[in-house]
Amino acid sequence: MITQLLSFLFGNLDVKDIKRKEELKETALEISRNALRQYNKQKDGYVYVISNPAWRGWYKVGMAVDSQDRCGSYQTSSPHRDYRLEYSKYFLNRKVAEEIAHDVISEISLDRNGEWFRVSVNKIRKIIKGIDYEISA
């Protein structure tokens, strides 16, 4: 079943039976939902800062289980593969740490658009460094 699913997803399987095709799509969606549920259950991880030279002076502050992997996933949206992981710090509760970081950075940021802030990366780094890694463990 998994082999057929992978073949279908990557285009190597000619699925003519509509019912079977829909079953495979539903299985793929369920696998995706289960992975997301597991990801969301994991409290620990990183708060990270990512930049892109196309938006000088703007920095994304986010959270991830693996900050290097998250930065890598951004590369697919840039033809120049020029996103850069500026900083990351491990926390026992990445969600709470990210929320604190966003609140504090918002107070000093010149502008904000979602998780993107227009403020110096050094100030962001200092704020994140100052958050206790055991926060709400």
Helix content: 40-55%
Hey, roughly how much beta strand do the residues contain?
A: 15-25%
Instruction: Return the average pLDDT rounded to an integer.
Output: 84
Give the uncertain stretches in residue-range form. none
Largest sheet: 5 strands, antiparallel
| Overall geometry | elongated
Please, could you describe this protein's structure?
The chain has 137 residues and is an alpha+beta fold. It folds into 2 domains: 2-41, no CATH class; 45-129. Helix content is 47%, strand content 20%. The chain is built from 5 helices and 5 strands; from the N terminus they run H-H-E-E-H-E-H-E-E-H. The protein has a 5-stranded antiparallel beta sheet with strand order 3-1-2-5-4. Strand 1 and strand 2 (58-64) form a beta hairpin. It is elongated, with a radius of gyration of 19 Å.
Topology:
Elements: H1 2-9, H2 18-41, E1 45-51, E2 58-64, H3 67-75, E3 84-91, H4 94-108, E4 111-113, E5 116-118, H5 121-129
Antiparallel strand pairs: 1-2, 1-3, 2-5, 4-5
Helix pairs in contact: 1-2, 4-5
What's the quick description here?
With 137 residues, the protein is an alpha+beta fold.
List keywords for this structure.
137 residues; 2 domains; five-stranded antiparallel beta sheet; alpha+beta
